[in-house]
Amino acid sequence: MTSTPTGTHAHGGTTAPILELADVSRTYSTGSRRRVVLKSVSYIFEAGHMYAIVGPSGSGKTTLLSLASGLDAPTSGSVRFKGRDVAEVGLGTYRNRHVATVFQSLNLLTYMNAVQNVTSAMEITGVRSGSRKRRANELLGLLGIEPEDRARRTLQLSGGQQQRVAIARALACEVDILFADEPTGALDHEAAAGIIEVFQKLAHDDGKCVIVVTHSRDVAAACDKTLVLKRGKLIPQG
Ligand SMILES: Nc1ncnc2c1ncn2[C@@H]1O[C@H](COP(=O)(O)OP(=O)(O)OP(=O)(O)O)[C@@H](O)[C@H]1O
């Protein structure tokens, strides 16, 4: 999809640079061995767009997501949110207030039920207490979690249901950027299509920036832009 000079795109929403990777490198050192996973990666992500990051296993996709979401800091270069270095914003503030992440490992609180998982995340991001439970139920419903399953501890839910609860939790945070690492990995075709539709609405109707790491061709095809990570470089396709 192409942006017009006025900052609108084909879906009618506005676009604006929201996240910038500026000359970002990440090196891991284990013993005497140094491995450069990202080499001076620069890219500007815009609000209102959905991006796919693809690449071979071990190419550094999760590393890139960790840096962009403030979980990890680059060895050199900077990650900028709305023009400010996230180190200056504070990694904790950036993670809690401005971005939400669906991890491959989901990180659900398994002793809590689905609704509690969603509302506890809202508490951290400062969503008004009066509306939390209603919004949690709304999102879980949207993602196909039935009322009786919402009250069960997430440990008792299937892998696909847990993945959808993790997505509901991320959506509940009302942040500017949503990161997701293989968000459809545990889902069948129909459920995956539903998730993709939710992500597209989030980008195109609500003006969020959605960045998805995926091995799925279907997910990549549904995104506005695909970026390939290969030999430490991030290469836009098309
Ligand atoms: N904490 C770490 N310490 C040392 N090396 C690491 C660390 N995290 C990742 N690596 C290495 O960095 C490289 C990139 O890993 P990363 O998990 O980012 O790749 P990926 O593209 O997400 O892989 P996959 O598609 O298999 O999930 C790999 O060689 C990995 O072994």
From TrEMBL:
Pfam families: ABC_tran. Gene3D superfamilies: P-loop containing nucleotide triphosphate hydrolases. Keywords: ATP-binding, Nucleotide-binding, Transport. Residues 19-238 form the ABC transporter domain. GO terms for molecular function: ATP binding. Belongs to the ABC transporter superfamily. This is ABC transporter ATP-binding protein. It comes from Streptomyces gelaticus.
